[in-house]
Amino acid sequence: AGYMAWQYQQAGSSVSTTLDVPGVGEVDMQADVGADLSLKNIELAHGQAGQLSWKLTSEQARYVQREKGKKGEKGTGDETQHVELVRPTITYYVGQQSGNKTVEQVQGEPMTVKARQGRVDRQGGAARLWDNVRGTYHNSSLAAQELVYEDATRQLTLKGGVTLASNEFNSTAPFMTLNLESKDILAQGGVV
User: Fold this and answer.
1) What are the pLDDT digits (tens) for 71-84?
2) Quick one: CA dihedral 90, 98, 150, 75, positive or negative?
3) Is residue 1 pLDDT above 80, yes or no?
């Protein structure tokens, strides 16, 4: 792997080869120029205080680390690290509880969301999915053009033709938020 990384660096932008890493998947050494590492069939998990907040799988992912700054200038030392995703699926755990509860009660109930593309920021646990966002939770389904998750608030923000449907109701709006702890839903801007 070290030799292949050296070849990649010497070639400038690509080496026509892949490396199969057991337990990780196939590492694509012919990654886009901006990617520091490209992987296939990945799984990421994020949690705090022993509770799993979300679990992600993706067919392809590129880890990118860049310095912020103006184009053509040396960076300020402030870096951005994120993972770009192709066909991601994220399972969020809704209504997590603490105290003397069972594992299922503490972890929360699963809500699964899929999209064609996505991005997870390495610091802060924020995630963004876009392009045909679809999700399920119990007997409910959701659809939107974009979903943004903020780990600090455990809130999902859905944008663009948002539809939330179940056996009991059907609602559409251009913008909705869903708090994963309280299960509160707020729809705004021309709610139908």
Assistant:
1) 544 444 456 788 89
2) negative
3) no
User: How many CA atoms within 13 Å lie on the side-chain side of 71?
Assistant: 0
Burial group, residue 62, by CB count within 10 angstroms (0-12, 13-18, 19+): buried
Average pLDDT over all residues of the chain: 76
| Residues composing the chain | 192
Could you tell me if 130 and 143 are in contact, meaning their C-beta atoms sit under 8 angstroms apart? no
Phi (first) and psi of residue 6, to 5 degrees: -65, -45
Closest among 148, 151, 171 to 161, alpha carbons compared: 171
Quote the CA–CA distance of 16 and 183 in Å, as a whole number. Answer: 48
Whole-number pLDDT of residue 4? 40
- Say whether 188 sits in a helix, a strand or coil: strand
Nearest Cα residue to 21 out of 2, 7, 1: 1
Tell me the C-alpha distance between 172 and 130, whole Å.
Answer: 18
Report the distance separating Cα 156 and Cα 148, nearest Å.
6
> Are 163 and 185 contacting, i.e. CB atoms less than 8 angstroms apart?
no
The predicted model scores a pTM of: 0.71
